[in-house]
């Protein structure tokens, strides 16, 4: 049971840290937040993420009890792009049209707002913004998405 509790604590700290980063962007750079969300909102992964977020009731999981400490692991672009690559590898097992790049994940400049030490992160805000704040936190930590070509 302790490993399950540890996993829950890790997941909650990660999600809440991402949400706090996203809340910071939404409050301090609303035009950037709007532009980022506007670029990813039409993507099926964004919509599926919202469905999963609601289905798993992650909002309740995130706001239940006292706020967790900030995520204490590396949460930079390199780490998150590695995670995305793993998800793409899993998706490619189901959908052969998913392309997984062969090259290793190389660093892309770190976002000025992705670190925890540089800024005072606000508390998360339960409600309609929470999923979008998590997404904003993820995007600004991993690097902004490129606009797909048609």
Secondary structure layout:
Blueprint lengths: L1 H27 L1 H11 L3 H12 L2 H6 L13 H18 L35 H13 L8
Short description:
With 150 residues, this protein is mostly helical. Helices cover 58% and strands 0% of the residues.
Description:
With 150 residues, the protein is mainly alpha-helical. Helices cover 58% and strands 0% of the residues. Helix 1 (2-28) packs across helix 6.
Note the gap between the termini. 48 Å
Instruction: Please state roughly what percent of the residues sit in beta strands, choosing from under 5%, 5-15%, 15-25%, 25-35%, 35-45% or over 45%.
Output: under 5%
Structural class: mainly alpha
Got a strand count? 0
The rounded Rg comes to 16 Å
For the residues shown, what is the average pLDDT? 80
Q: Give the helices and strands as they follow along the chain.
A: HHHHHH
Question: Please, how many helices?
Answer: 6
What can be said about the biggest beta sheet? none
């Amino acid at each position: 049971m302790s490993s399950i509790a540890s996993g829950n604590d890790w997941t909650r700290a990660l999600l809440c840290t991402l949400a706090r980063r996203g809340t910071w962007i939404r409050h301090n750079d609303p035009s950037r937040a709007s532009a980022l969300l506007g670029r990813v909102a039409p993507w099926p992964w964004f919509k599926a993420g919202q469905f999963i977020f609601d289905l798993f009731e992650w909002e309740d999981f995130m706001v239940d009890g006292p706020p967790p400490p900030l995520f204490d692991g590396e949460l930079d672009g390199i780490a998150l792009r590695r995670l995305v690559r793993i998800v793409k590898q899993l998706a490619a097992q189901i959908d052969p049209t998913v392309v997984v790049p062969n090259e290793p994940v190389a660093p892309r400049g770190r976002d000025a707002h992705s670190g925890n030490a540089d800024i005072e992160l606000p508390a998360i805000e339960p409600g309609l913004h929470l999923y979008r704040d998590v997404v904003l936190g993820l995007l600004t930590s991993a690097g902004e998405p490129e606009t797909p070509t048609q």
